[in-house]
Amino acid sequence: MGRTHALTGWCAGLALAPAVGVGTVHQAVVFAATTAGFALLPDLDHPSASATRLFGWLTGALSWLLRRVSAAVYALTKGPRDEKVTGTHRHLSHTLLFAVALGAATSAGCSAGGAWAVLGVLLFGLLLAVAALGDWLLLPYGGAVAWWYFTAPDDRVAQLADISGWLGAAVAAGCFVHCLGDSLTESGCPFLFPLPIAGETWYELRPPKPLRLHTGKKVETRLVFPVFALVGVLLVPGVWDWTVATVEHLFTPGASQTATQ
């Protein structure tokens, strides 16, 4: 589900952008790309995931550490009806608690680290998104950065520091959307940990069996992904208004034509 996770993260970023004060097209593209990238991060708890392989041994070591921490937390907190599993994949990093904590840590880290910390988060999110969606994303992202560079006020370092707050929102939203996507699959997602449900601290949320998605199957690749690809285009600022105006121009009779009828 890597591509689908990233694409739904892109859509979520574009939808959320106005609410966090991201008002221009180039800012929205950067924000959405960051959300798309971090929509892959929860799978860092899997040794073969894109996030784990991104920077070789470095992200591999982070994955190993995350799996160890997740397993320890699972062992300490599992309820009487929780499954007898290791508690590594789809556990700690697939929770609302993790999304909120990572978002808050990102905001705090960017505020403390300044422009370089902001650039690091932006670059990491972009590379994650490109790994899932492809190199084409570099073109609009690069255009957005160039647009920002030539139109931003002279103090660009201060401009980078100012966006540290909404970067935390982008990171949290990406992880949140990932968990929502996994909660629609066969395995489900322990989204509400540590809230106990039916004797389970790690209760896997998922829809009724007939509605569950099978990852990588036809419903995901031929329906879900194309639909979100279309939504991801329409959500870019200005595209929906342009589409509506174009449709109205093509299918609504003009004033002169109406008068002659």
TrEMBL record:
<dbReference type="GO" id="GO:0016787">
    <property type="term" value="F:hydrolase activity"/>
</dbReference>
<feature type="transmembrane region" description="Helical">
    <location>
        <begin position="96"/>
        <end position="118"/>
    </location>
</feature>
<feature type="transmembrane region" description="Helical">
    <location>
        <begin position="56"/>
        <end position="76"/>
    </location>
</feature>
<keyword id="KW-0378">Hydrolase</keyword>
<keyword id="KW-1133">Transmembrane helix</keyword>
<protein>
    <submittedName>
        <fullName>Metal-dependent hydrolase</fullName>
    </submittedName>
</protein>
<dbReference type="InterPro" id="IPR007404">
    <property type="entry name" value="YdjM-like"/>
</dbReference>
<dbReference type="Pfam" id="PF04307">
    <property type="entry name" value="YdjM"/>
</dbReference>
<keyword id="KW-0472">Membrane</keyword>
<keyword id="KW-0812">Transmembrane</keyword>
<feature type="transmembrane region" description="Helical">
    <location>
        <begin position="124"/>
        <end position="150"/>
    </location>
</feature>
<feature type="transmembrane region" description="Helical">
    <location>
        <begin position="223"/>
        <end position="240"/>
    </location>
</feature>
